[in-house]
Specification:
The chain is α/β, with parallel strands linked by helices. It is built from 6 helices and 12 strands. Displays low GTPase activity and exists predominantly in the GTP-bound form.
């Protein structure tokens, strides 16, 4: 299907096996596959609400291989927003995102104007190599948002895509159309928020943080 001028393009990057495709499929189709099938590049589309009208959310699930640098550069140049996925069970998968982030900066320029979400997937796993605080610290350094997810249990999957849309201040976008969710996800869990750096008391599980400039927004789920 050819791209339309009102497509909003989200590009998903990450090493092989971190669960990029599982996150996208869980969001778009409400399904989960437990087997790893390497992806070259897949694109999924979903209608969303955009500036009191509708537009198409185009999600590009990229390859976890480094064999297609030209394809990666093209995806970045055409993308409006980016999801950088690592597995909390693999510190190496977080390290592999660093050159991708640098390439996004090189191609897109003003990084603070670009919606980027750093995502620690497989949060249901008990054997971790990357703690939540380490993911948050990396997001703070990159001045991007952060969330932990589980495609397997459907934890924070819908919230991930909605919060990514919320980061784009130039458009008013929602996954809901006429009060109904456009995807097949269950109802979102209630979000409770507090600002980092304040003395407000609130229970923290540190699974969602949005950082912008020198101040961060801490939400707990």
């Amino acid at each position: 299907m050819p791209e339309q001028s009102n497509d909003y393009r989200v590009v998903v990057f990450g090493a092989g096996g971190v669960g990029k495709s599982s996150l996208v499929l869980r969001f778009v189709k409400g399904t989960f596959r437990d087997t790893y099938i390497p992806t070259v590049e897949d694109t999924y589309r979903q209608v969303i609400s955009c500036d009191k009208s509708v537009c198409t959310l185009q999600i590009t699930d990229t390859t976890g291989s480094h064999q297609f640098p030209a394809m990666q550069r093209l995806s970045i140049s055409k993308g409006h927003a980016f999801i950088l996925v690592y597995s909390v069970t693999s510190k190496q998968s977080l390290e592999e995102l660093k050159p991708i982030y640098q390439q996004v900066i090189a191609i897109k320029g003003n990084i603070e104007a670009i919606p980027i979400m750093l995502v620690g997937n497989k949060s249901d796993e008990t054997q971790r190599e990357v703690e939540t605080k380490d993911g948050e610290a990396q997001a703070t350094t990159w001045k991007c948002a952060f969330m932990e997810t589980s495609a397997k249990t459907n934890h924070n999957v819908t919230e991930l895509f909605q919060e990514l849309l919320n980061l784009d201040k130039k458009r008013n976008m929602s996954l809901n159309i006429d009060g109904k969710r456009s995807g097949k996800q269950s109802r979102a869990e209630r979000l409770k928020g507090k600002y980092c750096g304040t003395n407000e008391a609130a229970p923290l599980n540190q699974e969602y943080s949005a950082f912008g400039g020198g101040e961060g927004l801490q939400l707990t789920i």
